[in-house]
Amino acid sequence: MKKRLLFIFGFLFGLILLSVNDTCVVAQKRQPFTDSVKKPVKFGFGRPATGAEITAWDIDVRPDGKGLPAGQGDVKKGKVIYDTKCAVCHGLNGRQTGAVKLAGGALVGDTLATAKPKTIGNYWPYATTLFDYIRRAMPYNLPGSLTNNEVYSLSAYLLNANKIVGADVVLDAKNLPKVVMPAKKLFIMDDRRGGAEIK
Amino acid sequence: MGKKLKFAPEKKPGHMSRRTLLGGILAAAVLPVDGLFALEKDPVNMPEVINDDPTKTPGPGPSPLGKRSGFENPVRKPSDISSRTPLQDFHSTLTPSDLHFERHHAGIPTIDPLKHELLIHGLVDQPMKFTLAELKRFPSVTRTCFIECAGNFRTGKAEMTPQDILGLTSQSEWTGVLLATIFNEVGIKAEAKWFLAEGADAAVMTRTIPLAKAWDDAMIVYAQNGEAIRPEQGYPIRLLLPGFEGNMNIKWLRRIELSEEPYMTREETSKYTYPVQDKIRMFSFEMDARSIITYPSYPQQITKGYVEIRGLAWSGRGKVTQVEVSTDAGKTWEMAKLQEPVLSKAHTYFRYLWNWNGSPTAILSRVTDETGYLQPTLKQLIEARGPNISGYHMNPVTAWQIREDGFVFFKPEN
Which of A154, B11, B61, B409 is surrounded by the most beta carbons within 10 Å? Predict the structure, then answer.
């Protein structure tokens, strides 16, 4: 008798387990996942940045001149700075001479579009990029150490060495964006689009 | 008792420390990596004594940090500016974090995660700063995808491994927050079309990225393969732009500025651009589809009979749809099996069983992606772009020459 009862109870218990299990599976399949709360419009993490914090980091310069600081520089001053701080990696007068490859590459060369090596004169489409890059990353061993006037002067020197501006130019925020680079006309935006065509 | 094999010299007390000795041996062992890397041992991880019957002596117990077997020694191949992933040593798509390729422009900065902040400003409703802890509070997302350097092509001699040819691609499982979530938080003005991303390294690396990528699938990631990302991969945070050229995935990310026009930074004008006929193509963001057979490859040797050809295929434009393999130097092509799941913008592993009859031949692979793009040959790329072709965005079919003795050599395309 006891055995039979146990068997019946066991059977019923098994059925319950099965059905519970079943409901779980069904529930998982049918009920889409939901968070306990709706996604807020804003999470409210982070804090407003102050004007001073933005100024401290906002060092970029755009082709239209936005971001260029006050100050000015000329070719003569630029050459002095170049000889002391840049020539060791970029060569005397910015040129590749001899067989040993310059650590920083040549900056001055033939202005012909097909010329090698690629230099500011034949491969840089915007003069503003020169200011931006020198100020943020050069010289390699002391990045960010040059004053704005020094960067203007270096830009003037390098643009003059590449025969893009005259020897008497005084560069500032107004005229640097107006410098037309010889390579500008060569640049095209990406025209690859995937698909069958090899570009 | 069994014979004892010695891999490290006896320690001579008061003479030279074990570390110094092993360091010297390691340097010596690493040098000829080109020749026999598969058999290369790592003396630092190798126990001093190895019994030939491991069932007779208890081994060392648990440890706080795991190591590779001393019998395995996959290593990156570093130059001054980059290091290349040993693709030939992997059996699937994921790159171990310590073997992920590197490319940095002014070294790896050391950044205190408690002090690091991300600034977002420009054409936004509210300029904001986020700490790392705050970024981690946002709903997170995990995604597996590749990152490939845009200048990932070397050729020119037969003695080149997959690592030498295209070792500047790696795959990780990245975790972080969708950039869209953060952009929603600061509010993006309608005029914004681009954003500048800037790193906190000594290059203060900058690239301009189309805003559409932020709404599509861009992320700010803080984890790689489950743990904090490696310093050389941008610790504590980097930008992740699935499928876009590696350089744009700004590491050590500290600033994002929204703008109506591109900034024309040095890296997107005088670098990462390339001659196409008489023009120079810029803003080539997507990495086109590419594949390579990683086994068999130089300097391995195969024997007559069954050889499972294996390799990697990927596309920056979506999923790999098929990989074809040729075992007759490109005359005929057969379909390879793809390892599931095939993920979008991710390394995809392929396999093709081959019965080598012992005759010299060349084996090749070519991938097709979901846009219908078929991986080109070098010849096709030169025809499309002209003779002044540079090393950027080069994804040609790679061929391996099998010699009669079974030795495999890279077969550069002329």
Answer: A154
Q: Are B276 and B385 in contact (CB under 8 A)?
A: yes
pLDDT (tens digit, 9 = 90+) per residue, B367-412?
Answer: 999 999 999 999 999 999 999 888 999 999 999 999 999 999 999 9
Instruction: Tell me the two tokens of residue B271.
Output: 């670098």
Say yes or no: B138 contacts chain A, CB-CB below 8 A.
yes
Of B212, B241, B272, the domain-final residue: B272
Q: From residue B196, how far is each of A60, A62, A180, B335, B398 by CA, in Å?
A: 9, 11, 23, 42, 35
Q: Which residue has the higher pLDDT, B52 or B291?
A: B291
> With contact defined as beta carbons under 8 Å apart, do B105 and B82 qualify?
no
Comparing alpha-carbon positions, the chain B residue that sits nearest to A188 is: B281
Instruction: Name the CATH superfamily, with its identifier, for domain A64-186.
Output: Cytochrome c-like domain (1.10.760.10)
Quick one: B122 and B252 in the same domain? yes
- Which of A58, A132, A190 is nearest residue B283 as measured by Cβ atoms? A190
Interface of B with A in 51-110 (CB under 8 A): 105-106
Question: Tens of pLDDT along B234-284?
Answer: 999 999 999 999 999 999 999 999 999 999 999 999 999 999 999 999 999
Q: Which pLDDT tens digit goes with each residue over A73-100?
A: 999 999 999 999 999 999 999 998 888 8
Domain span holding position B135: 102-272
User: Cα distance from B78 to chain A (closest Cα, Å)?
Assistant: 17
Looking at the fold, whether B126 and B244 belong to one and the same domain comes out as yes
Total residues found in chain B within this entry:
414
pLDDT digits 0-9 by tens, B303-352 = 999 999 999 999 999 999 999 999 999 999 999 999 999 999 999 999 99
The structural domain count of chain B equals: 3
Nearest CA in chain B to A143: B202
SS3 A155: helix
Q: How far is A67 from chain B (nearest CA, A)?
A: 10
C-alpha–C-alpha distance, residues B294 and B87, integer Å: 7
Residues of chain B with Cβ-Cβ distance to A143 below 8 Å are 106, 202-204
d(CA B243, CA A151): 36
